[in-house]
Write a structure and sequence with these properties.
- This protein is mainly beta.
- It has a single domain, classed as Beta Barrel (Hypothetical Protein Pfu-838710-001).
- Helices cover 12% and strands 51% of the residues.
- It has an 8-stranded antiparallel β-barrel with strand order 1-5-4-3-2-6-7-8.
- A hairpin with a 2-residue loop joins strand 2 and strand 3.
- It is globular, with a radius of gyration of 15 Å.
- It starts with a strand and ends with a helix.
- 17% of the residues are buried.
């Protein structure tokens, strides 16, 4: 499946109340390559291989379904850190969804939020809610592929 992903990323000023009221997914992912990004991901009981094209605010993204066995086999080949996090899906105005990621060790207490848009115009006109902090869309230090290669 191919689509254009357009998203903005923000740090968190404060967590929204009652996080347990929102849908959430437990995510684990590893990177086979970071340029271009080739990632394997488990989201609850679903498994994917993802290719992301170049670009920061917007880029092509292809997702292919994997079996659990194929995911485990590829994860063993991942470079660097395996990233584990909980993603909360928080409804926003205009039908948008805030994807709040709360990272497990060794990245805890890192938290940030991403919002995906239908167009770059929608992204440009987005007014973040109060609980969002500084925008870090263009800061590579907050990309998951960069985190996968971070040394501790």
């Amino acid at each position: 499946m191919e689509n254009m992903e357009i998203e903005k990323k923000y740090l968190i000023r404060s967590l929204p109340g009652d996080l347990d009221a929102y849908a959430k997914h437990k995510i684990e992912q590893g990177y086979l390559n970071t340029s271009p990004v080739i990632r394997v991901r488990r989201s609850d009981d679903e498994y994917y291989l993802t290719y992301k094209g170049s670009g920061v605010l917007s880029h092509e993204e292809y997702n292919l379904s994997l079996t659990g066995e194929a995911y485990a086999h590829l994860l063993e080949k991942a470079d660097g850190n395996i990233i584990s996090k909980t993603r909360y899906l928080i409804p926003l105005d205009k039908g948008l969804t805030a994807e709040l990621d709360i990272f497990d060790a060794p990245f805890a207490p890192l938290r940030f939020v991403e919002v995906e848009f239908d167009s770059e115009e929608d992204a440009a006109s987005f007014v973040p809610p109060e609980w969002f902090g500084e925008e870090v869309t263009f800061d590579k230090n907050y990309s998951n592929s960069y985190l996968s290669s971070k040394k501790f």
